[in-house]
Amino acid sequence: MSKATLSAIFIALLLMSSAAKPNGKSKKAKQVVPAVDCDMRAGKVNLPEFMVKCPANCRETKEKVYGTAVFASISSICNAAIHSGVITNSGGKVIVAKTAGQAIYKGSFANGVRSLSLPNWRESFSVSVGKPKKGVIYPSTLVFVTSRPTTGKTAESKELLYTTASPVTEAAEAEPSTTTSPPTTTTPATTTTPTTTSAKPRATVHRVREAGSSHPYFSSVARQSQSVQGKAPTQAFRGSSVYASRFLPRTNAGVQRPETSGTVRRQPPPSAPASGAFSRGHPPSERKQHTPQSNPAPESEENKPVPETSHTRETPAESNPFESGFTSRVIDTTARAPEVPSQGDPNCKVDMAFLMDGSWSIGKRRFKIQKDFLAEVSQALNVGVAGAMMGIIQYGDDPVTEFSLKQFSSSKDLKTAISKIVQKGGPSHVGKALSYINKQFFSDANGNRGGAPNVAVVLVDGWPTDRVEEASRLARESGINIFFVTIEGPDDNEKQNVVESNFVDKAVCRTNGFFSLPIASWFALRKAVQPLVKRVCDTDRLVCSKTCLNANDIAFVIDGSSSVGTGNFRTVLQFVANVTREFEISDTDTRVGIVQYTYEQRLEFAFGQHNNKADLLNAIKRINYWSGGTSTGAAITYAADQLFSKSKPNKRKIMIVITDGRSYDDVRAPALAVHRTGVIAYSIGIAWAAQDELEYIATDPDREHSFFVDEFDNLYKYVSKIIHNICNEFNSQPRN
Predict the structure, then answer these.
(1) Would you place residue 170 in the very low, low, confident or very high pLDDT band (cuts 50, 70, 90)?
(2) What sections of 599-709 are H helices per DSSP?
(3) How confident is the model at residue 246 (pLDDT cuts 50, 70, 90)?
(4) Angle formed by the axes of helices 668-676 and 632-642, to 10°?
(5) Helices (H), 39-180
(6) Which among 377, 385, 592, 329 has a CA at the least distance from the CA of 485?
(7) Cα dihedral sign, 602-608-609-614
(8) What is the predicted pLDDT for the residue at 620?
(9) Rounded to the nearest 10 degrees, how much is the dihedral formed by the CA atoms of 402, 408, 413, 416?
(10) Distance between CA 402 and CA 585 in Å, rounded?
(11) How far is CA 198 from CA 307, 312, 410, in A?
(12) Interatomic CA distance for residues 426 and 290, integer angstroms
């Protein structure tokens, strides 16, 4: 080998070694994170997964967020991230992942952001902390979705790129051989050749209604504890219940059932009578049995599939914040852009069920008048996700859900759906219909929002053919405000035919006249539209929304003296937690405060200091044992000054005193003083507690408010008794 050849080989090897890095690692790629504004919506970005940097102070902008954990794509990315706890109000990086749309998005309050409920939306997204996995590089520019179609033109496909002037960079190792990731940089491509494409139909929302979910006001007494997922205050925590046996029909064991009667229609027989031709107790032999058939509720424009066409092409235009999708959607020239969900009137935020009379006695003409009345009511209510939501049940021999609360979110769609309701016939079983709405209709699955009062308006032609008292009582105790609109009620000669006398007073929420509207004639029914809407929207007077589980200020006064001991004190705290778990906890529902006492007193926390159940239970767990003497009388006075003096006027004031010995001071005068202010006092004595002092402390009758156990480990036996007594007292209040 010649010298020249050896020299060439040596130089080549030298160059190769100098090109390699000393540590042998490949060069790292820079991750550029585009910054976005607080109002940037996920649906505006045409990428399945991407990362953005949110600015500070987005919470103050109050940009809309729909859903909890999984959000509708019309939500603000940054406020959704704050709501989920991914970032704080000081901003930060967020990874956004698109998912399929959902039929219902639940609103809640978390981290200072109020998210709203939404009946349905075609695309969702979730957020996570902006730390990419090793080797993953997200796009450094955001591609906007295009929404406005052009007609009859061949246009270039333009993608809007969103970049930042001051990109945030982050090192990430490039591993192209093992990881496939979105491109880090893109340039807008242009289409130069016309294409002929068929438009893909938009997926419609699955409308099988579910039955059996717990009513929101008693959900905490019917299910095992679940982890908190940013729910609204009234539904922040669901615990196991010892009081649930009274409400077992409302529980959901986890199996979803389709609405048992939601799609069944009874067609009138060929010889269906004209108005007034049949008596109310029409013989079954003269009625034709119906056959079940599929009769789904009419679709709103939002959920109708886009018609297919063979002469359309993708022609993007300016971006629309409410358009969403993983890729640009091919749209027919007749297709319209999606509308923003109707917000409704926020001053009338109620969940309403109308029970319409479908019995044969009403006749076809009056049934049409009833439908016109409901259509006018829906317009007057201004139905929307931030206001009133409305569902309809038709009753005859069996109740049928025409549509649930979540099915329509605008008055326009409701009016169209109401016009298509077909009379089902049968007798007027109002009691059975009230039982149905209590057990099945007002459920999470049917769109019940929890934070809105539940209202049931019963339309009755004449009088019911079954009893309503018991079904109405159970519905009221579940938090349902019952209104009755009676048309052409029984006169003096007809009252002997009524199954249950004074049925209106036995059914309505209160007997003061506010919840009943007697109408003399069917032709005068439309005059009741405005009076009815005004009443159902007066939420301050919907008193039946308050139940024994969501209308209290409860003060626990617990003995921390030396005789208790550390182990027994933890047992007392467990008892307090078990009682607390049964109530609906929020600033507007039941509130809890705790005082620990020895010779002195200590306010552990005040009413409203912990406004969701998870925080409250954690606060109870963190209370430290004090140790000292026993001055129960002074502790009662202290609780009155520090807690009940700040109680809300519409709350029932309840005090539960727990002690294991005789007090060093007098308990009679302090107990009498709190009784006079309306406080309902319970006393629980353990081991060496004095029976006479327990009776002085307790509200009369003593046997319902005073309890004694021989040892701390038996405290748990009285949880159910206390809850039962609290609810019995609440439900026995006069209804005038």
Answers:
(1) very low
(2) 613-621, 632-642, 668-676, 691-697, 702-705
(3) very low
(4) 20
(5) 77-84
(6) 377
(7) positive
(8) 97
(9) 0
(10) 33
(11) 9, 7, 31
(12) 11
Task: Tell me which residue has tokens 């519409």.
Answer: 650
Would residue 502 be called left, alpha or beta, if left means φ above 0 and alpha means ψ between -120 and 50 degrees?
left
Phi-psi region at 587: left, alpha or beta (left = phi > 0; alpha = psi -120 to 50): alpha
Distance CA 728, CA 243 (A): 11
The closest alpha carbon to 408, from 420, 396, 425, belongs to: 420
Mean pLDDT of the chain: 76
Which pLDDT belongs to residue 13? 67
- Helix, strand, coil percentages for the chain (3-state, nearest 5): 30, 20, 50
Residue 534 structure tokens: 């005004």
Residue by residue, DSSP assigns 198-226 as PPPPPPPPP---EE-PPPGGGGGGTS---
Position 475 pLDDT exceeds 80:
yes
Q: Which of 354, 358, 352 is nearest to 465 (CA)?
A: 358
Q: Would you say how long the chain is, in residues?
A: 736
| Full 3-state SS string of 680-704 | EEEEEEECCCCHHHHHHHCCCCHHH
User: How distant, in Å, are the alpha carbons of 102, 531, 721 from that of 527?
Assistant: 39, 8, 49
Rounded to whole angstroms, how far apart are CA atoms 673 and 663? 17
Amino acid at 171: A
- The 10s digit of each residue's pLDDT in 96-139 is 999 998 888 888 888 888 888 777 788 999 999 888 887 788 88
CB neighbourhood size of 383 (10 A): 26
pLDDT of 433 reads: 95
pLDDT at residue 602 in the model: 96
* 532 contacts 483 by C-beta, under 8 angstroms: yes
Question: Are the C-beta atoms of 568 and 712 separated by less than 8 Å?
Answer: yes
SS3 720: helix
Q: Among all chains, which residue has been given the structure tokens 């307090």?
A: 576
Return the higher-pLDDT residue of 482 and 237: 482
Place of tokens 């700040």: 646
CA-based angle 412:417:420, to the nearest 5? 135
Cα 207 from Cα 405, distance rounded (Å)? 12
**Contacts (Cβ under 8 Å, ≥6 apart) of 313:** 154, 194, 195, 196, 197, 330
The amino acid sitting at 703 is: R
Give dist(CA 686, CA 136) in Å, integer.
Answer: 62
Q: How confident is the model at residue 277 (pLDDT cuts 50, 70, 90)?
A: very low
- Residue 543: CB atoms within 10 A of its CB come to 18
The residue type of 727 is: C
Looking at residue 367, what DSSP letter applies? Answer: H
CA dist., res. 448 & res. 454, Å (int)? 8
Beta-ladder partners of 72: 124
Of 313, 733, 723, 316, residue with least CA distance to 543: 733
